[in-house]
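Appendix B, Record 12. Input sequence as logged:
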Amino acid sequence: MSTGTRQDGVSDSYVYKWQTFKSLRWDFLIHGAMEEKVLVTGGAGYIGSHTVLELLEAGYSPVVIDNFHNSIRGEDSMPESLRRVQELTGRSVEFEEMDILDQAALQHLFKKHNFKAVIHFAGLKAVGESVQKPLDYYRVNLTGTIQLLEPVSLSVTDALRLSSTLLGWGNKWDLPVRHRPLTLPSTARS
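Logged structural output:
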């Protein structure tokens, strides 16, 4: 895997991650209907916004939540990445600035919408920082996910998909990466 930067400024590692992500099977989301809503947590980030684009093109109505920890705030309340997705697709994206640690806001969101599925990208991911601030990473990645699972378990009709990166699974891996049972995380972020 190359670690350079393309002419458009996008890191080769991000391109590799997106190509790997895109190759995953998302059988639960094939042939969507416009009325079917999919919640995308952390949807304003790089992979999240590309997922929103794919969902729109597949006919779904994504609802995106993000707290701008790893994304860029646009001129108005819409993240820059999602503004670009709207330009590309000609469709609007419903966005709410929200932190998955805000249980009351999550409960309100799930009362407001009937989601077919949830794709969960909201999490902290910097390996070095996860070693320096493990409790912050446990709070967001573990507690936040548990808080998200509570309303999901009561209302989502189809599926939950979690996002993971290769960053926390050690220093060496064979490509393509195959998730194996009993793999122990190397950092608190995992």
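The chain has six helices and five strands.
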